[in-house]
């Protein structure tokens, strides 16, 4: 979810930014990049502990991408090894980011 989407829904920039900040503080939003957030649904309970799937986080950082290589093989059960980082194929290279303790590299 982008900050622009929340602003559009609420119709007011200032109040939308307050809502975003409040949801970040309460743990319902996870900041991926500047202006881009991952919504953590209420089905996870009142004590939202964050997103445990590194693949879900990695694929939400940019619009047009795919998670591949070792992380995809691990997710689909083709290997028993858990990758230390997640590699994401993107149109334009980006610096490595660490989100929720997982290194995400963009190639």
How would you explain this protein's 3D organization?
This protein is of the alpha+beta class and 107 residues long. It folds into two domains: 1-49, no CATH class; 51-107, no CATH class. It contains four helices and six strands, in the order H-H-E-E-H-E-H-E-E-E. It has helices at residues 3-10, 13-26, 54-61, 69-75, and strands spanning 29-33, 36-39, 65-67, 85-90, 94-99, 102-106. It has a four-stranded mixed sheet with strand order 3-4-6-5. A two-stranded antiparallel sheet has the order 1-2. A hairpin with a 2-residue loop joins strand 1 (29-33) and strand 2 (36-39). Helix 1 packs across helix 2. The longest helix is centred in the first third of the chain and has 14 residues, at 13-26. It is elongated, with a radius of gyration of 15 Å. The mean pLDDT is 84.
Any idea how many domains?
2
Rg: 15 Å
Order of helices and strands: HHEEHEHEEE
- Low-confidence parts lasting 5 or more residues at pLDDT below 50? none
Question: How much strand?
Answer: 25-35%
Strand order of the largest sheet: 3-4-6-5
Structure, briefly:
With 107 residues, the protein is an alpha+beta fold. The chain has two domains: 1-49, no CATH class; 51-107, no CATH class. The protein is built from four helices and six strands; from the N terminus they run ααββαβαβββ.
């Amino acid at each position: 979810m982008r900050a622009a989407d929340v602003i559009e829904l609420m119709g007011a920039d200032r109040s939308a930014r307050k809502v975003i900040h409040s949801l970040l503080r309460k743990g319902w939003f996870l900041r991926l990049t500047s202006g881009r957030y991952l919504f953590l649904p209420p089905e996870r309970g009142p004590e939202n502990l964050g997103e445990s799937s590194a693949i879900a986080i990695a694929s939400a950082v940019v619009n047009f991408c795919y998670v591949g290589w070792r992380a995809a093989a691990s997710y689909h059960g083709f290997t028993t090894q858990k990758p230390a980082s997640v590699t994401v194929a993107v149109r334009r290279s980006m610096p490595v980011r660490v989100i929720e303790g997982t290194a995400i590299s963009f190639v």
